Amino acid sequence: xxxxxxxxxxxxxxxxxxxxxxxxxxxxxxxxxxxxxxxxxxxxxxxxxxxxxxxxxxxxxxxxxxxxxxxxxxxxxxxxxxxxxxxxxxxxxxxxxxxxxxxxxxxxxxxxxxxxxxxxxxxxxxxxxxxxxxxxxxxxxxxxxxxxxxxxxxxxxxxxxxxxxxxxxxxxxxxxxxxxxxxxxxxxxxxxxxxxxxxxxxxxxxxxxxxxxxxxxxxxxxxxxxxxxxxxxxxxxxxxxxxxxxxxxxxxxxxxxxxxxxxxxxxxxxxxxxxxxxxxxxxxxxxxxxxxxxxxxxxxxxxxxxxxxxxxxxxxxxxxxxxxxxxxxxxxxxxxxxxxxxxxxxxxxxxxxxxxxxxxxxxxxxxxxxxxxxxxxxxxxxxxxxxxxxxxxxxxxxxxxxxxxxxxxxxxxxxxxxxxxxxxxxxxxxxxxxxxxxxxxxxxxxxxxxxxxxxxxxxxxxxxxxxxxxxxxxxxxxxxxxxxxxxxxxxxxxxxxxxxx
Length: 501
Known about the structure:
seven-stranded mixed sheet; Dipeptide-binding Protein, domain 3; Dipeptide-binding Protein, domain 1; four-stranded mixed sheet; 23 strands; alpha+beta; D-Maltodextrin-Binding Protein, domain 2
C-alpha cells in the first residue's frame, strides 16, 4: 500500500507539472530543511537556496580548474596587504546594505548560524555607499573570496526575498519543491522541480520512464545496469539519448583514529600498519570503480596537493612487518596472548555501511587484528565522535572551496572536536607549517608549506585514507548544456531545454 500511495502521489505531481507553462526540469533531491542561507547546513539546502538567491560572488559555470565569477557583486579589489576587500554591486536590485545585513546574520547571536565560522576572521563590514561594500579582515586570508561564493553568503533583500534566477512557488514539505524562473529565457527551463524520492529503485524507474530529467548519483546497486564490463554506458541507455557524466569531487572519505584513545592514539606504527593493510583494489571493486583510492587528505585537482606515492599504501607484507613493530606480532597482544581487538563506529546501519564495514574487518583479519563494528544513529555518532567516545570511526569531509587549506584544517590543533579535527590530532610542527602557509605572500611559498603539512600527516597517519568520491550523474536528452560541477548550486539556470521528438 505504501508503494502504491507513493506512486499515486508522484503520478499526480507529474500530471500537475504537465500543465505548467514552459519547459520543466525535474530531479529528485533529499529533503530541504531551510531556505534561510544563514541556517543552511546541507548541500540539499544549498541547491534550493541558490535558485532563489545570489551569493556575493559566484563560481564560473564553465571554467576548469574552478574559478570565481561575479554574481551579486563584481570580483573584489584587494588591498596590497591582503586585509581589505572592496566589492562593487552588480545586481541592480540589491544594495551594499543588503550585503552587509545578510553577512552580519551569519555572526548574529540571535540567529546562531552554523555557518558563523565564515565570519571569524572578519574585523568589519561597511556599506561605503549603496554600491560599495568594504570588508576588513583581522589577518590575511587568501581563500576569503571563495567564502563569499558559498551559498551561506547569499544576499537577501530587506524583506527576505532574493534576486536569484528562480523563485519558490510551491513547497510541499518532504514531497516536492517547485521553482519558476523570474524572467523567462528562451531555450532554458522555466520551471525546476525537486522531488523527494527515498527509494533508489523508484528513482531509477522514474528516470528510465522519463519522469525525471536527471539522476544525480547512480547507486552501487544500479551501477551494473548503467555501465557494462567495458566501462561504457549501456547501449540501451545510449539509444535513449542518456548521457553519463563522471567527475572527481572534493569529497575526502576516511577512517579516523581517536588520538585520545590509549591503544591507537600513541602507537603510530599501529596506525601505519592498518593503513598498509587497507586493500585499496578490493575497496575500489566493492564500489564498482565509482571512487578514487586516496593517498592523503587532499583530492586530485587541488593546488598544493602532494603527488608522491603514499608510503603506507596497500602492502600486506609491510603491514605485517609494521604490526609486529607496533608490538602486536601476527596481531597478538603479548600482554594477554590474545588478538588485538579494535572497534570501528559507523553512523547509520545501512546495508552499504554494514557490508563495507565487514570488508574493512576482512582487511585487518589478514594481519591478525580483529575489528568489531558498532553502529549508531547519525546524531548519536557525531556526539560520540565529538566527545572522544570512539576508537575508530568512519566519516568524510566535503570540500567547501578548492584550496588545500580547506582539507588541512582538519588536522590543526585549534580545530579539535567539536571542530572539524575529529581525530584530535595534535602536532606542533604541523600547526607551525600550517600557520606559515596562511601567512605566505605567494601561492608558491604557501604550497611549499602545504606539501610539508601533508608529509607529516601521511607519516603520522591519524586517518586511514580510504577514497575520494566521484560524481556519476545521468541526463536525459531533454537536458542540454549540462556541465558537471562540484559547485552545482543554482546551475539549472544554465541548462538548455531540449525537445525530444
